[in-house]
Design goal:
Strand content: under 5%
Helix content: over 70%
Number of helices: 4
Distance between the termini: 50 Å
Radius of gyration: 20 Å
Number of domains: 1
């Protein structure tokens, strides 16, 4: 993210604080994806190793539920990251009323970042949509 040359030292400190939050949220999102894929793989492996047919699809049903749960959790992190990015851009571009000094309050940007838009964004659909769809197809196959 670029900054303009007319930012004060306090603005730069504020931007550094925001960037650290954005980085932390992005890291959390990465970890959530890793855990989801790992747990999903384990559950599908358990399903394929189960002796009974009903245990197969039940394990895969749990995998779908896990994928959806992690999808929502990751959506929370991605939405928060986008809100903090909007706050960052608001400071850099000085659009609208300037935010309070060193504020971390992103409520002014709530209307700009929708939950549904985040959950249905390409990265989220590619990761969790593919997992949930593959698991759902596996349930139909195992029944």
């Amino acid at each position: 993210m670029t900054t303009s040359g007319n930012l004060s030292e306090q603005d730069l400190k504020h931007l550094e604080l925001l960037q650290s939050v954005i980085t932390r949220l992005s890291n959390n999102s990465f970890l959530v994806k890793g855990w989801c894929i790992t747990l999903n793989s384990v559950l599908v492996a358990v399903a394929s190793g189960s002796a009974s047919r009903s245990a197969h699809w039940r394990s895969v049903l749990v995998a779908v539920t896990v994928a959806i749960g992690f999808w929502l959790l990751d959506g929370y992190y991605l939405r928060q990251e986008r809100l903090f990015r909007a706050l960052y851009e608001g400071i850099v571009t000085r659009r609208g009323d300037p935010p309070a000094l060193l504020t971390m309050d992103t409520r002014r940007y709530d209307g700009d970042v929708s939950w549904l838009g985040v959950l249905l964004s390409r990265p989220m659909l590619f990761c969790y949509g593919v997992l949930a769809t593959a698991d759902s197809l596996l349930i139909l196959f195992l029944r």
